């Protein structure tokens, strides 16, 4: 009987079939699981010239699809990791969904919205912008769903990270979010809603902290001021996260220019 050692598996070559386009640029901006990314949109761009148009035939008949991808921001792996939802310390990486794996392969189930040519539009995506896609497969309910599978160590903390708070934007915050989206292309309102709906309490993974006059969420270089009353979150205003010295510098960086224009429009709100 042959074994793995009888064959040369020392090097396997994987070739991406496409790339993910989304507003999520860094790891701190992404949900930790697809179910925690409800409503987050993304577009999977398949590479041309490889006959993928035919490979996509019949995929629209499925509501959910598996996306197999490469964690391209992870330089190495860790045998034990500390998952965000662990209440009892570090876990073996093979017992988690951590991206810090020997082979940084990711697996997410997303909701298929539509297909336009080689562009696949999906929802509930927890994948970062620029992520290489290795494969796509349909989610088949009768084979992929196993209600009796159990939750392993997650039974120590069985609550699912589903939206539990109602997020409301006050008029000023609504206008500011629209300005930012128009000027920079950052879908900041969507990001704010999806993050705060999961919980507005201070949390390092969601970049939430208390400040003197309320609560603050960091979204890239922007700072979002909000308050909480019961299960209601009220977003009051958005301010720049840059220091005055940075804004006054001679840098012609487009991000800084956008923040300077924002201050010219909305004034100094700190």
TrEMBL record:
Tagged with keyword Lyase: no
Domain of life from the UniProt record: Bacteria
The entry's keywords: S-adenosyl-L-methionine
Protein name: TsaA-like domain-containing protein
A Pfam family that the UniProt record links to this protein: TrmO_N
Residue ranges of domain TsaA-like in the record: 14-148
Keyword check for S-adenosyl-L-methionine: yes
Family listed: Belongs to the tRNA methyltransferase O family.
